[in-house]
Design a protein that fits this description.
Layout (H helix, E strand, L loop, with lengths): L1 E5 L13 E5 L7 H17 L2 E8 L3 H4 L12 H10 L4 E6 L2 H4 L3 H9 L4 E7 L12 H7 L5 E5 L3 E2 L2 E2 L2 H9 L3 H8 L3 E8 L4 H4 L5 E3 L11 E9 L2 E10 L13 E6 L10 E11 L7 H22 L1
Parallel strand pairs: 1-4, 2-3, 2-5, 3-4, 5-6
Antiparallel strand pairs: 7-8, 9-10, 9-14, 10-13, 11-12, 11-14, 12-13
Length: 315
């Protein structure tokens, strides 16, 4: 998959030797609703012998327009979004910088200065997609503005349990630790990615060595607690039990930095500095402070067996 980064503040170089069926949207999470939009764009590409493409934006609009404490955390970082889209058969990913220059474009200018220059022949988006300055452009506007150059189609609402599948709904579930329900909306387990860092090695002293990942500030993570997880490193998938939180038995919660600590089952080796992914499978219990180290060790042993049982049931 080719990744092309674009900036509306600069003149976009026209593409002349390719024609695209384009799915457009922010697509944070790439949940089942987003997947329906992208599948429709791919179907149209196959039918009309176009190249299937996706246009997304970076950063999230809230990072431009909202105060620091109102910025929306990402469900899916760009690297993970790229991996998933490539697996879905997308030929080209356009990543458009979301800045003031883009936000100020009128709907007509967005179509003329961006979509037409990219030789788009069909556009697919969700039913609630808007574009242009202050989101004034609708998909009906898209059809009219593209007339004679490209066609446009809208994919209707995708729901589960009579409620729209949305990135907002997924963020709410993760805030409650409901990773199993999140997986149903995503069509896959929610994933956190990062580099294994050098932790305080308390887990090793307790007899349960852990791989430690500090989540990036702009990525959303599940609520603090203990989870059954699957841990991927170097292309190999391991079962594990994970604590996410501030280790209240050892540290003052108000001073500690949130970390993801995974006890990886049946692994013997050095993970420090390696890229890893944590797939969140099931919530086990909230994070808690223990009265003694022995109580903590006993609970970790119980958590480990609980996680094994949950993960074995999936196989």
């Amino acid at each position: 998959m080719e990744v092309i980064k674009l900036d509306a503040a600069q003149s976009i170089t026209p593409i002349e030797n390719k024609e695209f069926s384009l799915a457009v949207g922010f697509f944070d999470g790439l949940h089942k609703g987003h997947q329906a939009v992208i599948r429709e764009a791919v179907r149209e590409a196959e039918e009309r012998q176009l190249l299937p493409a996706v246009m997304t934006f970076d950063p999230h609009p809230s990072h431009l327009f909202s105060k620091e404490d109102r910025k929306i955390g990402y469900i899916t970082p760009l690297s993970e979004k790229e991996r998933l889209l490539s697996d879905m058969g997308i030929d080209t990913l356009f990543i458009v910088t979301f800045d003031k220059a883009l936000a100020d474009l009128s709907p007509a200018r967005f179509v003329e200065d961006v979509l037409k220059k990219l030789n788009v022949r069909h556009v697919t988006a969700g039913f609630d997609f808007t574009f242009g300055s202050k989101g004034r452009g609708t998909m009906e506007d898209m059809r009219q503005l593209g007339e004679g150059v490209f066609t446009a189609a809208t994919v209707g609402k995708v729901a589960m349990d009579d409620e729209k599948i949305s990135s907002t709904r997924i963020r709410g579930l993760l805030a409650e630790g409901k990773v199993s329900e999140t997986a149903e909306l995503l069509g896959r387990p929610f994933r956190s990615v990062g580099t294994v860092t050098d932790g305080d090695k308390r887990g090793r002293l307790l007899g349960f060595p852990t791989a430690n990942i500090i989540p990036e500030d702009d990525l959303i993570v599940p609520k603090n607690g203990v989870y059954a997880v699957r841990f991927t490193v170097g292309g190999t998938v391991y079962d594990g039990v994970c604590n996410i939180g501030v280790k209240p038995t050892f540290d003052k919660p108000e001073e500690a930095k949130k970390t993801i600590e995974v006890n990886v089952f049946d692994f013997d080796g050095d993970l420090y500095g390696k890229e890893a992914a944590v797939d969140w499978i099931a919530f086990i219990r909230p994070e808690q402070k223990f009265g003694s180290i022995d109580d903590l060790k006993s609970q970790i042993g119980t958590d480990k067996e609980t996680a094994r049982a949950i993960l074995n049931d999936l196989d």
